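Why does residue order matter? Because the sequence determines the fold. Keep that principle in mind as you read this record.
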Amino acid sequence: MKRILVTASHHKMADGLKDTLNFVSGGVQETIALSAYLDNQPVEEAVDELMKGFAEEDEVIVLTDLTSGSVNQQFFRYRNRPHTHIVSGMNLPLAFQVAMEPHGEYITVERMREMVEEAKNEIKYVNDIADDGDDEDE
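Structure:
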């Protein structure tokens, strides 16, 4: 069993997230970026080609940019593939959590839901955070 993280987006967001994830995690997670609309390949073909390349026992975690977007809609067709989780609204905290999950066993649906909630909690309106008066850099 192998775990593969797929970041998928319109234009280059997926590539940027993959690059940043590799930087902060030390490249511990195999990650594939699918950046749609950079060439003339239809999104449906790109998604099908990617998904058909995985072994049946591979765990595939797909993070997409927009729930109602065309990229997510193409991955949606694979939601019943065994060992596959598809999450829209990708962000670095979620990708990092997936990368740091212990390998060797599949991520459960319950654990995936927990990681999504934790990632949502990382979104903050920083203006509302109290200032402790310490303006020094870390």
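The longest strand covers residues 3-10.
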